[in-house]
Task: structure prediction
Amino acid sequence: MRIIITGTPGTGKSSVARELAEVLGVEFVDVTKIGSKIKNKKTEVDIEKFKKLVVKELKGKKNFIIENHLLCEFSLPADFIFVLRTRPDVLKKRLGKRNYEKKKLEANLIAEMLDYCTQKTLANYRGKIFELETAGRTVKETVSRICRIVRNKKLKGDKVDYSRYLTEYTKQETMQ
Result:
C-alpha cells in the first residue's frame, strides 16, 4: 500500500503520517531532510531535484507512507492520496507557534484558502484523492478516518471550502 499525505504546512501531515505508519505497520519514508538539503539561495526547494531524490528514495518500495507539502507538485505512484486541510484561523495559530515570519505565514494561509495543495494534487494525480479536515480532530481521529477510508474504498473525504476566509482576509488587507 502506497499512501501520500500532502497539505499546507501546519495541517498535521507529519504527526498523522508517523501515527498512520505505526497503526498500519507500513514504513514511514521521511523526505523532509531531502528538501532542506536542496534549497536554493531564496530558501525555496528546487522541485525537480526534490522529485528525483524522492523517486530514488522510494525505488523498490511497495508499501510506504510519505508526507510533505511539496508532494502535491508532482506525481508519484500511489494507492491513496490524502490532502490534509485546516481552517485558516487554526492554521494561523499553529504556524505562529512555529515562529513563521509574517510573509511566510501569510503565504501559507493564502495557499490554504485557495485550496492550493488540493488543486495541485488533482492536477498531478489520478485515483483515490481525499481531502480531510484536521481542525477539531486529534491525530488519532484523523488516522482512524484514514484507516476507514483505506479499508472501505467507497468512503469519501471532507468537502473543504475556505473561500469565505479569503474574502474576509482580502477585506482586512484593503483596510490596512
Summary: Helices lie at 13-24, 32-37, 47-58, 88-97, 102-113, 116-124, 139-151, 163-175.
